[in-house]
Amino acid sequence: MDAFSRRTLLKGLSAAAVAGAAGSALGCSAKTTTGTSGRIGAEILPTYAQAGSVEPALKSASPLGMSGYFEYPPNPVASVSKPPLSGGQISALTYTFDPVAPGKSDNPLWQEVDKRLGGKLDITYAPAADYAQRFATTVAGGDLPDLVSIYGSVQQLPALLKAKFTDLTEYLSGDAVKDYPNLAGLSTDSWRKTVYGNALWGVPIARVPIPSVAWIRADLIAGTGLPAQPKNIGEFKALLKGLTNERKSRWACGDPGSTLTMIAASMGIPGSWREDGGKFTSNIELEEYEKALADTRELADAGVFHPDGLVASNNQRNDWFTNGTTPIVFGGYAGWSKYEMWGAEVPGFKLGSLPMFGYDAASKPVHPRGSAAQAFTAVTQAEPDRVREVLRVLDWLAAPFGSSEYLLRNFGIEGQTFTFEGKDPILNSRGQNLRLVPFGYVSGPTLAIYDPGRRDVAQARFDYQEAALPILAPDPTQGLYSETDAAKGLQLGKDLTDTRNGILAGRAPVSSWKAAVTKWRNGGGDKIRAEFEQAFSEAGPK
């Protein structure tokens, strides 16, 4: 397959990993396709219909939000009336963020999934960080499984989809999705991730678009007199400086880059691009962004960041937070329960979060925006009957909270992998391992807020979501594709990150940022802008 060589695919996918990291720190990852613009694919998107019938204890006011539950409904029933397969096998290639699960021969949970599917679901997967290599090798080899995860940025993606995968528009567009009622329950915005050339090319892995939270050790802040819920930049700086005591080996935070993102958001700076009359401006070009960089440099000079903060891994920063070395950490919203679990053995540990604040009284803050779809699953070209069979499997995997399928995929088999404590299924150690099969990265429902036995955690997660969703930063690049971004995002992101880190480390003045932006523009940024503007124009009016 000359048009889609392994080298070309690897370059594009590697760019996703590095530029994505740069985007989280710099807020300039152009490829993020999220938002509520309503332009992309509006006429072909599947008709939304809530999946399942379980009434939530907490119902989001936003169509992007997750419902919250305090207990698992008793006597769950199947959302799919009959097995989607009549024997046979479905193969899939995907990624995972978890350790490797026991193989099917040693995994009764996986065996039970096969039994209820009515056939075999064989999943090959790789760690998310290594998925680019596995994807490129598989596609270049030409022998594709039935289902393939499209995760990260891929060069020549529209052409690749047309050459190797199935246009799902006739199967899923509009009311056609009613044949797959669990898929119809995925958020409308998540489907935009799958639209290229006015066609649907997959099933989204839907997510609430809140990427991260500024976590605080509320127990370490209590009684200090510091502003635990800062209302402006002055109080935020006072909090960070007040928490820092280098003689006691304590620094406020371990992540200067995410602190920069939070300060930029306090000014209302978008996470990627700003659109006005069809013209795009990157956030890094704004004067306000340089001001946010200067404020972060001031905090760095005051010593509020861990000395190794710029080079530390996320695992190191999480360890610093748990042991109290840094009372503030930026982590994924989806990982809320993990922070509670890590702190369970720490005496007095109390998890809190910092809400978004306005830079000053005149500022309208935004919350950094993530993607409404983490990835999407494409269906390899096949005869219509085979495509429908594969879609039925994806629909089964997307069974919502409260169903028997959801209980099986997430908790396993009662008595073997979990037991009920009241109405809550509580996993045992065996279940924690067996359930790591990445079914949810092949297909899954809109996520739910549910923390067995911890109503307080579920309520806190829900309250944060409801405060964040109304102020999510806009992203006009939703559903738009830039070949230059896919091809050059790696190097452009790295150059910006290097310059930013040099400024925050005190090796370069804040004024050097302007030269970095000029280099970005000349090196491909202006071309990315032009490609997005053209794609935005071609998408038509709202």
TrEMBL record:
InterPro entries, alphabetized: SBP, TAT_signal
Key words of the record: Signal
Signal peptide: 1-30
Stretches that traverse the bilayer: none
Protein name as it appears in the record: Putative aldouronate transport system substrate-binding protein
Native species: Kribbella amoyensis
